[in-house]
Amino acid sequence: KQWYQRRVRVGVYVDLTLGRGGHSSAILKKIPNGFLYSFDKDLEAIKETKKKLSKISKNFKLIHSDFGNLKKELEEKGVYKVDGIVADLGVSSPQIDNPQRGFSYNKDSKLDMRMNQEQKFSALEIVNKWSEEKLVEIFIKYGNVYLPKKIAKCIVQNRPIQRTLELADIIRNSLPAAVVRKKNPLKAVFQSIRIAVNSEIESLKKMLNSSVEILKKNGKLAVITFHSIEDKTVKNFFGKFIKNETGKLPIIEAKKFHVKTKKPSKKEIFENRRSRSAKLRVLTKI
Description:
single chain, alpha/beta, 7 strands, globular
């Protein structure tokens, strides 16, 4: 069960990834006398979800902003400490399923991948203007892409590239057929480009630091990750708060934080295949 599934009734909570309101709806039902702030840089998500949440409670505010701006946005609203924060990382299902957004390598669309549609910088610029060296860098850094130099070289040689399926074909053709058959190379390459377009890791690091600062005593920060790049970032960050700073045994110092990790059950994976790679990490400020 999620950390907010006990009936807390009061307090100030934050959902950093509103999406279509799954977490926000559940939180609102548990805090009839509390207040919820929900963030999303996708204006479409905010417009779609506002009516849904209004049917549950009026005790919420939707904020159109990157969650890296968490502390600044809350301080502008007079909020300096909160009881709980949840972040469900990565691209949302509606974004993937909407062919016009350009996130999917299975649907034909103009190259885009912007979570914030008001942002000008898109996948089109990365694919068509970035150097071969810079493409290799993000493929390794954000996707652990196999044979990144071959893929980057083929992309540069086939410019201009306008469509998602066009890019998908170029990626497949850049690699030996045996490699493509063994493991789909598209997922890692598209993931790398998407992360770069939306500055996801930079925003994540900024958000994690801000979250720890504004958590009250006994407050919880729950983060759901879906791939190793973001999970490693969260794991390493949480790890800093629970390791033995003295380096001596036995550990006498009082713990200031507690971390719990959980993976989805077989039942949840059966009901939602996209959850199979998910991992929930919860940091509690003691």
